[in-house]
Amino acid sequence: MFFRHWNIRLRVGAAVTLLFLVLGFAVSSFCPIPDVMAWGSFPKSRPPGGGHILGTTALGQDIFWLAVMSLRNSLLLGLLTAFLSTALGVAVGLFSGLRGGAADRVATLFTDSLIAVPNLPILILLGSILKGRIPIPALALVLTLFSWPWPARATRSMTLSIRESDFISTARFSGEGTLKIIAKEIFPFVSDWSVASFTNAILSAIQTESGLAIIGMSSNTMPTLGTMIYWANDRSAILSEQWFWIGAPVVLVTLLFIALFMTLSGYQAYATMRRGK
Question: Taking the model in full, what pTM does it have?
């Protein structure tokens, strides 16, 4: 009954996203290769077949398992960054918007300052200093640093419009503390937006890492969709007509972005319909 109320965009987007999650986190657990990035593990530049579903790369890697593990790490980066940035941003926005005063002014100054800082040059500099060996958790923390001010700013604006409502005043006069008011009275109004922000943060994190990896500024020793594109381009996969090597990560990134976008837009329409009832 719950899924029957979902619109077609939400159903298709959620189904494809679930397929990617299963492929990345379930299928990857059956990977028979200890290190999918290791060179010379298999005969080089083999076409699909003979135990290699998508063939092998010019570096002697199995393309299918390389793509699966790359998808897993990209999803892990996106989910970790989205969770941290959304949780931190929403918490700061709720607290500063409700408290007001000096706490709100300090939080606003801090978030606006981070928003004004260009993150791409810093990420490129960091990748250059670490010589393309920045690990996924560290990259997720860096991306979180530049991502959380946006949800914080939006959540603060919504909280400011809600805190003067009569039910908030009633809760205060009833003796409810700040945390209880945030959890019971305000957060339900921003929860739908938080889901949308979480989904958008996944897209942003994967897009940023892929862009850094393609120019050689991410972890080139860690399989991600961006790293896979980097090595395929570095070894002239297009000129040598190794379409599965360059095509697999491009198709995965494209379908993942479309699926997440459909999930996001479908959920927003679903949430609007649910509030109208």
Answer: 0.89
